[in-house]
């Protein structure tokens, strides 16, 4: 029996408010116990590890409950210090998170859905198809589990930022993602600043505008990856619904409403989007508003014919952008030795066809 199956019928304490936890406790339990349990959950402790609670209470709670709605299936450590986690959620679904160390602090890359509906040609999560949305407690648990493994607690965090760049399209799971960010940033929750959370989207323009209107303070990162609608639609089917002009205009709106500079992700694919004409069009598209371009070289996905642009050509592409006044950086492709890109470890683990 897998651990997921064993926990199938159990509920996770991390998903409950203190008042709900109180209602599960015997009347004899002191009033602060529920708050204490919530704090332990945010530290990533399992019920058996909440040793300041009476043993009998721990046993009663363990009957129907677990602390976190996930267990760690595998962990892979990259030579560059990043660490990739494959988590199994209650019910058995698998999704990935990545721990990414920086010069200052570290961030966690979080999955927001099991699979993804968007079907981008270069992405392992898209190939797998969509299974279900992750709920707020499941996303929070990814952060809590990685933070604990890095030696942190909720009060003394080992992670300082969160990026929504794992499997899934966060704006296609809008309400759950907003609630997750609320828990992540609440003072009596995980306590991170909303400005240290980055939401990456394939460009659901309506969702971007809604986020701006909802008073978001997150950093917005837009996966652009092409400069003509023809090229973008060929690798990102979502472009047929929200073409480039609409995506860029929603990103401008986000800047106007929030005052936050928008990041554009641009994955270079050899012969598809890496010509000097692309660089020219990209600068024209993003002219007149504070944008930053993150250039990434494609992480080849098994079974795809798409190839990464060479390092030299990537540097040349970035230089063309900066020469025209558009800030651009070529990002390290982290963890490529551990299937670092979106959905790849899971694909390797479960076989070519996903589940
Ligand atoms: N669905 C959201 C967030 C998850 S994907 C989005 O698409 O933005 C996070 C980032 O990884 C996106 O910029 C995506 O385009 C990029 N990505 C996915 N697969 C990749 C690959 N094989 N190589 C390089 N980048 C990839
Ligand atoms: Fe989904 Fe993002 Fe992957 Fe596209 S790149 S399939 S939107 S997870």
From TrEMBL:
It is found in: Cytoplasm. GO terms for cellular component: cytoplasm. Its EC number is 2.1.1.192. Its cofactor is [4Fe-4S] cluster. One of its GO terms (biological process) is tRNA methylation. Keywords: 4Fe-4S, Cytoplasm, Disulfide bond, Iron, Iron-sulfur, Metal-binding, Methyltransferase, rRNA processing, S-adenosyl-L-methionine, Transferase, tRNA processing. Residues 102-337 form the Radical SAM core domain. It comes from the Bacteria. S-adenosyl-L-methionine binds at residues 168-169, 200, 223-225, 299. Binds 1 [4Fe-4S] cluster. The cluster is coordinated with 3 cysteines and an exchangeable S-adenosyl-L-methionine. GO terms for molecular function: 4 iron, 4 sulfur cluster binding; metal ion binding; rRNA (adenine(2503)-C2-)-methyltransferase activity; rRNA binding; tRNA (adenine(37)-C2)-methyltransferase activity; tRNA binding. Its main location: cytoplasm. It is an enzyme of class 2 (transferase). The keyword S-adenosyl-L-methionine applies. [4Fe-4S] cluster binds at residues 116, 120, 123. The active site is at 96 (proton acceptor), 342 (s-methylcysteine intermediate). Pfam families: Radical_SAM. It catalyses: adenosine(37) in tRNA + 2 reduced [2Fe-2S]-[ferredoxin] + 2 S-adenosyl-L-methionine = 2-methyladenosine(37) in tRNA + 5'-deoxyadenosine + L-methionine + 2 oxidized [2Fe-2S]-[ferredoxin] + S-adenosyl-L-homocysteine; adenosine(2503) in 23S rRNA + 2 reduced [2Fe-2S]-[ferredoxin] + 2 S-adenosyl-L-methionine = 2-methyladenosine(2503) in 23S rRNA + 5'-deoxyadenosine + L-methionine + 2 oxidized [2Fe-2S]-[ferredoxin] + S-adenosyl-L-homocysteine. Belongs to the radical SAM superfamily. RlmN family. Specifically methylates position 2 of adenine 2503 in 23S rRNA and position 2 of adenine 37 in tRNAs. Reaction proceeds by a ping-pong mechanism involving intermediate methylation of a conserved cysteine residue. This is Probable dual-specificity RNA methyltransferase RlmN. It comes from Candidatus Limadaptatus stercoripullorum. The gene is rlmN.
